[in-house]
Description:
- With 504 residues, this protein is of the alpha/beta class.
- It folds into three domains: 2-44 and 154-320, Rossmann fold; 50-141, Rossmann fold, CATH 3.40.50; 324-500, Biosynthetic Threonine Deaminase, domain 3.
- 42% of the residues lie in helices and 20% in strands.
- It has helices at 2-9, 26-32, 50-59, 63-67, 77-88, 103-111, 123-137, 148-164, 180-192, 208-215, 238-247, 256-270, 276-291, 312-322, 337-346, 378-389, 401-410, 434-440, 474-484, 495-500, and strands spanning 22-24, 36-40, 70-73, 93-97, 115-118, 140-141, 171-175, 197-203, 250-254, 298-302, 326-334, 352-358, 364-372, 393-396, 421-429, 447-454, 460-468, 488-490.
- The strands form three sheets. It has an eight-stranded antiparallel beta sheet with strand order 14-11-13-12-16-17-15-18, with helices on both faces. It has a six-stranded mixed beta sheet with strand order 1-2-10-7-8-9, sandwiched between helices.
- It starts with a helix and ends with a helix.
Amino acid sequence: MQETIRRILTARVYDVAIETPLDPLPRLSARLGRPVRLKREDLQPVFSFKIRGAWNKIAGLSPEALSRGVICASAGNHAQGVALAATRRGAKSTIVMPVTTPAIKVAAVRARGGQVVLHGDSFDDAYAEARRLEAETGAAFIHPFDDPEVIAGQGTVGLEIVRQHSDPIEAVFVPIGGGGLAAGVAAIVRFLRPETKIIGVEPVDAPTMKAAIDAGQLVTLDQVGLFADGVAVRRAGTETFRLCRDLLDEIVLVDTDAICAAIKDIFDDSRAVAEPSGALALAGLKTWSAAHPGSGSLVAVNSGANVNFDRLRHIAERAEIGEGAEALLAVAMADDRDAYSRFLRTLDGRSVTEFNYRWSGEGVAHIFVGVALRSGPHEKDDLIAALRGGGYVVEDMSDNETAKLHVRYMVGGRASGLPGERILRFQFPERPGAFLGFLNSLQPAWNLTLFHYRNHGDDVGRVLAGISAPPAELDALHAALDRLGYPYVDETDNPATRLFLDGT
């Protein structure tokens, strides 16, 4: 322990790293009823804390070692730190990365002078290849977490936290992949603030350190989830396991939805976009705080911001569910307008975030609907009870991974026996009652055959609707829709409509 503390206190990190701020999160603090602060390691030159450990290790290499180059295995953030540190010291760097690494991280490594080798589907595959290349070339291996100098460099994050927050801290939350950051932070915080809890956070599908601590020895997981790719490690380090086992108070596990909700919390309070592993600690903080009410200050480490832009679509979809702000329900009802109208009245002014339906001809409509929740966790249960009391068959899909990932986008398909069906694309105002007004504008003989809607956070909702009306009544249909006043485009002859929705 003394040697670890000495290494942290003498670590060389500020030649390339910066002392990052410890920012308050006022909106989240108000919601949790206690002060919450975020350690902004996403503001480092490589947008991650990993530059600390990489530089501390490489800064200590001899000129002879540097002449043979350095090599590492990494899912991205450590890779950038090694590439930058090696370039600063005039050394060649070879970075072995899993083929699943986000493209933004691969590009960033190359931009910082690293020679990238893509190998395998996981960190462990990349690690094995990097070790093989190390033996072949004689390059110095820079371990991403299981090295005393790397651990010491990461530990300076904890040193800054206790210096920046002179008042008592109830708990510090640290993400865990291989455990380098958690080990370093735990060591220095335990030494300087023994009364402060140090809590590690892992994804529920990658509980590498928790599995090892529970077993009392290192274990290798058969597989790990890749959503939080920065912590997708199947086996913790020997030294990091020893330190985390002795110094962590506990480890909290969180799921994908909780991580996405934490990304949104960080954005709402700071306008920063964290990567999934970067928001992991805050997700754990929220989970722990819910189980341990109090007023003490809590600190979470935002470990990085290297996220592909296209992943934000998935993150945004899951964030509302993760913070309990949306319910996803499968509702079965009679396939007629009266049933739809009663269903919408049962929602009682709630905001519908999604509505997916396709005519089946079986007399029963199966609707996939999203509903915004604003009154707390009991609201979903109350809504389901009200719908079932109205005679509807309801299944809660909010925690159904298959429904959230796939089925919600597959509701519908081609339907036969629909002469005169028109496919129309609308813009609905985002206000309660808009859909009911649309239904009421249709004549009894015009059947609603398809409906797809998703709230995108704008002031108008984008809707695709199918209406079955005899050809002789098309003018009357368009006149009714014109009176409704919602902008629309007839997409019946759109190639996408003909290929995937038209059953004639």
